[in-house]
Amino acid sequence: MKLYKKFVVASYLKNFFIIFFSLQLFYTAVEVVPNLKYITDSANLKVLFFVFKFLNAINFTLPLSIIFALIASKFQIIRTNELLSIYASGIGKDEVIKPIFIVALFISSMHITLNMTEFVYANTYADNIKSFNLIQKQQNNIFLKHFDTYVYFEKFDRFKKEAINIQVYKIKDNQLEEMIKAKVAKYKDKYWEIVDAQIIKKVVDENITKLVFTKKKSIKLLEGFKPQIIKSLYAKNSKSAISIIDAVWALILFKDQKVDTGKIRASLYKMVFFPLFAPFFIIILFYKLPISIRFFNITYMTSIFIISSLLSWGILFFLIKISINSVIMPEIGIILPIFSIGLYSLYLYLKK
Predict the structure, then answer these.
(1) Which of 28, 54, 326, 337 has the lowest tally of Cβ within 10 angstroms?
(2) CA max distance for the chain
(3) Which of 251, 231, 255 has the alpha carbon at shortest distance from 241?
(4) Could you tell me the domains of the chain?
(5) CA–CA gap between residue 134 and residue 246 (Å, rounded)
(6) What pTM was estimated for this model as a whole?
(7) Are 52 and 130 spatial neighbours (Cβ–Cβ below 8 Å)?
(8) Over the stretch 64-92, which tens digit does the pLDDT of each residue have?
């Protein structure tokens, strides 16, 4: 790596880590301190609550840290005239921003990777600790649909992959054809296995409708309905999270069903595309920031760019929220703004 690249990357990373951990601690303290009174006198739960809130804070502080680090780094080397020295040696703007962009893109990619794991459920766990003094709360009264089959779970436990008191209704030609009752169902090998099921089936024999009662030790149904998909999509809490992998699986599952997937798509786009906002935005900031302090007030300019960054981040976050709530299409509320920012940043980079 060339000397100037090492210099700008080292300057950027130093500012990034300082800003990131400062914002993390500030955000976590604001979230944790007022809520500690709602948690029982259990040191373990309080520590877990702090950890989960700290992890959840990454979703908010990481994009801002990437942007603020660029602003701090550039004004720092502007103040010392190091940026002018770099340009004077024949190095162009595109060569200066390229290593910073690669580092920012790598950091954002790590964030996207985290969204494929249990990391996305950190805030849900923290809210459960605050409200119920439990990491995972058992859910009650879940009703879901799979093609012409309707299933009711009286109690549902995601961790155990188990449901209690199940009722299954199979519909054909808008008529109830079969009903299945059981005490327990467990998720195994991509299916929900109903144990010791009682089947009540409607049979028409010589224009006489009969109900036939049978019993079966095991019945498999609801192919692909992973416990986390049920937890996230059918929970009463609208804030329930879902990982990238589970969101993709859910979209495949509901592809041929008449199910509104707007919330799933919005959650997926938020986790995949929103982290890319910061790397693209720093390119725009880099080309808009001046190269010398001779003709402007550095404090005034810093304030303007920080406020502009916060406003842009806030608008995107607002669009994500209303997309998740199905006010607008997620493709318009999330993908279009990020794509526009990326396209404009590419234009500035290629512009001669």
Answers:
(1) 326
(2) 98
(3) 231
(4) 3-117+267-350 (no CATH), 137-229 (2.30.30)
(5) 23
(6) 0.85
(7) no
(8) 999 999 999 988 888 888 887 888 888 88
